[in-house]
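TEACHING EXERCISE
Course module: macromolecular assemblies
Task: Read the component lines below, then compare them to the predicted structure of the full complex.
Student: A.B.
Group: 4
Components provided:
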Amino acid sequence: QLRLQGSGPGLVKPSETLSLTCTVSGGSFTSSDYYWGWVRQPPGKGLEWIGSISYSGGTYYHPSHKSRVTMSVDTSKNQFSLHLSSVTAADTAVYFCARPVGREDAFDVWDQGTLVTVSS
Amino acid sequence: EIVLTQSPGTLSLSPGERATLSCRASQHVGSNYLAWYQQRPGQAPRLLIYGASSRATGIPDNFSGSGSGTDFTLTISRLEPEDFAVYYCQQYASSPLTFGGGTKVEIK
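Instructor-supplied answer key:
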């Protein structure tokens, strides 16, 4: 059974870069060129899509974050990563990585979420 | 950007009752690329429905989705205790992918 495990620092200082990694286990990240996603949820609020990446490196990002977001893949480790630069307190949220339902960008497998707090 | 508006914001019902949740899009959602998720406190979202009406793997048949174009509905035919949660719709027809603000289904 495919599982996702997100990891990364729980505390990031303002103006620095938030970096998270999602490790895929129990299945192949490279079996099909679908777009795996990052979604975040500020405390007590709703869900926001940040962007998605395919194993071949294709990306598409939310326009609101496009200038600060970079996503990358490491197929040798079955991992994909999120980097969000110049963070502020508004970037404090639980960050989820998720697998798409085939070619459709609904997400059927999620990790447990990583709380990232932006604070000095 | 397609804006999704969910209503009501909160639905107060008793176990065994039927729940009807609405999701209205600001523009046509092509190919009915509309999904529904359930989120319990402290947990990740759980995919219930995709393609407006297809149940995800392992989702019981008391959950059903319907609708097309700009108006979509999630129906829970009989509420079980574990169904009291927040529900989100999401469109993935066009970028950016967007979510609705959520409907909380609470115990009356």
